[in-house]
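Re-run with default settings, no changes from the original entry. Doing this only to confirm the output is reproducible before filing.
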Amino acid sequence: MATDSIKILVVDDDPAIRNLVKRFLLQKKYQVESAADGKSALALFENFRPDLVILDVNLPDALGYDLCEEMQKGTDVFVLMLTSRNDTEDKAIGFRKGADDYLTKPFDLQELEFRVGAILKRKRPVMPPPEKEILVFGDLAIDPQRREVKVNRELVSFTSLEFDLLYYLATHPNEALSRPTLIKEVWDYDDMVGDQRVVDVHIGQIRKKIETNVSQPSFIKTIRGYGYRFEPPSP
């Protein structure tokens, strides 16, 4: 993959981490800018227009979660969050704000390279092929061309990853899909590297948006110890 046309913004208040990541990515021929706080990060974001932001959760003047949400307003920028915490709820907050992936400190630079490459391979289509028709399952409608989801004809807000995951499930109805399969097909990660808990977090968020009863979901069924299955309603 040619990297010299790809722009990455690194945001971290720790100069050691910030400079290390920047130097490493420059060696990989990416275009890289860096910022130490939220204010300068937003200013750079507007001028630099990065394809990917590597964003620390805790900054001196802002929360990375809020910056993630702000940066994704009106853009398709990818966001890789950096955090010192490893609990699922902490990651869930970031995913609700639109983060594409998480990397927990301390991290290996080779893993960083892998995750950056995998994220960037998922170039989000501006206009999917016209032959992809709207999928309708009772009160649920999934429009792949507009990348929109409606429940009872009401538009529901979805992050890009939530949409990708729901669409993949819906296009494989009644099929038992393992977590490693979903990691590979939706995230484009090798199942030996991807954190399978990320699937559970996103499924939880999707259920809150499309299910009438989250505790007894009608669309996305859990296959204990394995993964998930999308079940269309009976005609």
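The first strand starts at residue 7 and ends at 11. The two ends are 45 Å apart (CA to CA).
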